[in-house]
Design brief:
The protein is of the alpha+beta class. It is built from 3 helices and 8 strands. Bound molecules: 2,3-dichloro-N-{2-[formyl(hydroxy)amino]ethyl}benzamide (5LI) and nickel (II) ion.
Length: 183
């Protein structure tokens, strides 16, 4: 079972390097890891389990946060329109995105960052992603708003990018022209 001790923090090399594609079809070990990642996120949102194991809540997790430089991520959340997402993904790739941007009005957080980093994180409003899901099926996802933001946060981890890398250094709360909050 993954707990907070398994999550690497700022300064750990996998958080700032580009992760390697996962060999397809996935081997047993990678399948177990991705399944454990999804379970961790679900556990982190469960009042009893998260309290018992002192888990910080999250809506996604990327393998580099476990010190594994592999292009694997998992998400578990419901967006503000009631669409729920709960799956693991191998080798996700953003194949197109909108010019229009969005952001979460309260900013973003990260289990690999043990501090608050205030500021607006501009993201693409819409993205289209191709990936292989936990069951080994090729999927194409068209995401908008909050769901698009979460997936971009995770895919950034696979490219060694942290959410705060997107925050405007001169004016952290500057909203990008024309961008609307997704929450
Ligand atoms: O990489 C994943 N994490 O670090 C898990 C903890 N962060 C979150 O759940 C989180 C919080 C706010 C906004 C976004 Cl977009 C995300 Cl993803
Ligand atoms: Ni993160």
């Amino acid at each position: 079972m993954i707990t907070m001790k398994d999550i690497v923090r700022e300064g750990y090399p996998t958080l700032t390097e580009s992760a390697a594609p996962v060999e397809m079809p996935p081997n047993k070990e990678d399948q177990e890891t991705l399944t454990d990642m999804l379970t961790f996120i679900q556990n982190s949102q469960d009042p009893e389990i998260s309290e018992k194991y002192e888990l910080r809540p999250g809506v996604g997790l990327a393998a580099p946060q476990l010190g594994l430089s592999k292009r694997m991520m998992a998400v578990h959340f419901e967006d503000l329109n009631g669409n729920s997402y709960s799956d693991g993904y191998y080798n996700p790739k953003i194949i197109s995105h909108s010019v229009e941007q969005t952001y979460i009005s309260t900013g973003e957080g990260c289990l690999s960052v043990d501090r608050e980093v205030p500021g607006i994180v501009p993201r693409h409003m819409r993205i289209t992603i191709k990936a292989i899901n936990l069951n080994g099926e090729p999927v194409k996802l068209r995401l908008k708003g909050y769901a698009a933001v979460v997936f971009q946060h995770e895919i950034d981890h696979l490219n060694g990018i942290m959410f705060y890398d997107h925050i405007n250094k001169n004016d952290p709360f500057k909203t990008p022209d024309g961008a609307k909050p997704c929450d």
